[in-house]
Amino acid sequence: AHVNIGWVKMELNQSADAIPHFHTALSLMDKHQILSRSRATIYNNIASSYGALNQLDSAEVYSQLGIQAATSNADPSAQANGHFILGTTYEKKGELEKALSSFQKAQAISEKSGDPFYIVSDLSEISTLYAKLGKSEEGIATSLKALDIAQKNNLSAKLPMIFTALANNYEVKGDYKNA
Predict the structure, then answer these.
(1) Using CA atoms, how far apart are residues 147 and 96, in angstroms rounded to an integer?
(2) Cβ(39)–Cβ(73) under 8 Å?
(3) Residue 11 CB neighbour total at 10 angstroms
(4) What is the reported pLDDT for 170?
(5) What is the DSSP string of 4-60?
(6) What are the pLDDT digits (tens) for 9-46?
(7) Dihedral sign, CA of 162, 15, 52, 81?
(8) Which whole-number Å values give the CA distances from 62 to 51, 98, 142, 151, in the listed order?
(9) pLDDT at position 89
């Protein structure tokens, strides 16, 4: 129940209220010696909550715990999510190269899953980060790859994200006609 309450609080942007519920869930799992695949997801949710509160050092620690737990439990979805949360944390810290590395690890895991929804999301985020890094050629290529996958899989909901990333990269390149 504490996991669900924490998740609801997190989704309602009540991160400070979510964190204690997630910690209670972990304590109960430890107290009753419950081994659960959900531990990685709980760590990731704690990391995300700390990130929302701009407590970035805590977000980094918990995302790393989430990645470790997901790797131990062979949970690629939680592993990719942990890498994305970690990348977002690095991005907020201004550590863009570390963010890119973490996003690329997440994307490689998502690519193996074969789910175009997540692949396109990951590629769009990576493209946006390339623009911030001034690597417009890589960003444009990544956006175009995302666009191709989105169009082939009728993912029209992802088009605004892709076109925004693409425009940002064209702007960085100085190609205002295509931006």
Answers:
(1) 23
(2) yes
(3) 11
(4) 96
(5) HHHHHHHHTT-HHHHHHHHHHHHHHHHHTT---THHHHHHHHHHHHHHHTT-HHHHH
(6) 888 989 999 999 899 988 888 777 766 778 899 999 99
(7) negative
(8) 10, 16, 29, 36
(9) 97
pLDDT digits (tens, 9 = 90+) for 70-79: 999 899 999 9
- Structure-block tokens of residue 27: 């304590």
The two tokens of residue 28 are: 């109960």
Residue 39, C-beta contacts closer than 8 angstroms, at least 6 positions apart: 26, 29, 69, 73
Which of 94, 102, 108, 174 is CA-nearest to residue 137?
A: 174
Nearest to 117 by CA among 84, 87, 156: 156
- The predicted-structure confidence for 86-113, as pLDDT tens digits, reads as follows 999 999 999 999 999 999 999 999 898 8
